[in-house]
């Protein structure tokens, strides 16, 4: 391996260890509380939320196919990752600005942040996939992006499960359903919603909403970008 690849490999190994940590007592307690809270919501509310997120994600997944860049071919890992970091920076700053504007606009405008931020996150994943040389016209590559998204914004318990699928992606993709509707959308929306609830709740408050929206969106995009880089490194570098 080149020096750049060796550095990336060491960073990947450290990340893999973090992804495979068992849930801590605090993680288990938080999950228990959130599960109890979710149980209080009527079934029709869960169905409505699942349908809404499913349609938003599907719209971006299939709509972005027409605007995403062509897969980058014949480039060294260092070149690819330099370009990826530039895209992360661009989308991170875009999301931060969007969070500040919606946070400053009060309760109703803050609600608009949810679909806007979701679209920015998924568009970032499309760009990262192309820069690592993967063609998102392949249905399984789009499902890979959903798994990266789920890995980033889930509890540690779910993260352990999703990580194993991504670490063995070439075998796992052979078992994927032929229809995107068969994806576990309910778990996807619950984990995502639960994960960002605390980070985004304060954005609805007056005065501090703009600052909270800016900082929360900045960190969420940075986290998603870092996770995506590690997931694609697993597909390019030797298995640990």
Entry keywords:
mainly alpha; 240 residues
Q: How would you characterize this protein structure?
A:
The model has no long low-confidence stretch (mean pLDDT 78). α4 packs antiparallel against α11 and α6 (113-131) packs parallel to α11 (209-236). The chain has one domain (3-236). It is built from 11 helices and no strands. It is mostly helical and 240 residues long. The chain has helices at 3-19, 25-40, 43-63, 77-104, 107-111, 113-131, 139-152, 156-167, 169-172, 185-201, 209-236. Pfam families: EcsC. This is EcsC family protein. InterPro entries: EcsC.
End-to-end distance: 14 Å
Residues in helix, %: over 70%
Count of individual beta strands? 0
Taking Cα atoms only, what radius of gyration do you get, to the nearest Å? Answer: 18 Å
* Tally of DSSP helical segments: 11
Unreliable residue stretches: none
What is the mean pLDDT? 78
Oligomeric state of the chains? single chain
Strand content: under 5%
* Helix/strand structural class: mainly alpha
Provide the domain count.
Answer: 1
H-E string: HHHHHHHHHHH
Largest sheet, strands/sense/barrel = none
Tell me the overall shape: globular
Could you give the topology of this structure?
Elements: H1 3-19, H2 25-40, H3 43-63, H4 77-104, H5 107-111, H6 113-131, H7 139-152, H8 156-167, H9 169-172, H10 185-201, H11 209-236
Helix pairs in contact: 3-6, 3-10, 4-6, 4-11, 6-7, 6-11, 7-8, 7-11
